[in-house]
Specification:
The protein has 220 residues and is mainly α. Helix 7 crosses helix 9. It starts with a strand and ends with a helix.
Amino acid sequence: MNLKTRLFGRTYQFKDIKEVLAKANEEKSGDRLAGIIAESMEERIAAKHVLANLTVADLRNNPVIPYEQDEVTRVIQDDVNEKIYTEVAGWTIAGLREWILSNETSSEQIKRVSRGLTSEVIAGVAKLMTNMDLVYGASKIRIQAHCNTTIGLPGTLAARCQPNHPTDDVEGVTAAVYEALSYGVGDAVIGLNPVDDTVDNIKKILYRFQEIKEKFEIPI
């Protein structure tokens, strides 16, 4: 497994796959605060180059959190379809990306292969894609879900409103909900991701959601 590459006259050596995945990511403030971001655009490109040449097996065999230490990792690993995994284990991450984007690859094929992939593999291939790659690849897969409304139907534009606020100010959350609804993008799901997850705090925000629902007669 090669975690080293030479680009622009400089050799880049990464200590493990976890570092490769972190530094191949596009710049994000959270990554910067966590101290895991690539130090330069050149290092980010180097990490992507290394990632592109790793195989599906490399990423499965080196989960970000070891199998023995994390229950989520165990659930994901144990749920992998071993027959499908064996078929794609030798594919490079770059090869998987090209396969997903190929005009010859169908939605059914992508769904089938996904059952043989772990989260690290899926994250890895996403880090090699542009925004348009992600849009095109995702457009091949139809996932429908229904609660009070149905999302994922062909030809239907849907959105998820996530009205976060740094202090859970109810008026700030309300403003975010109104802004989201003003775009009129069809079916909408309004979620809640509070900073303070105490019962009293969540209740006051959910009560405001209920008021908005009753005011505009919308399903939430």
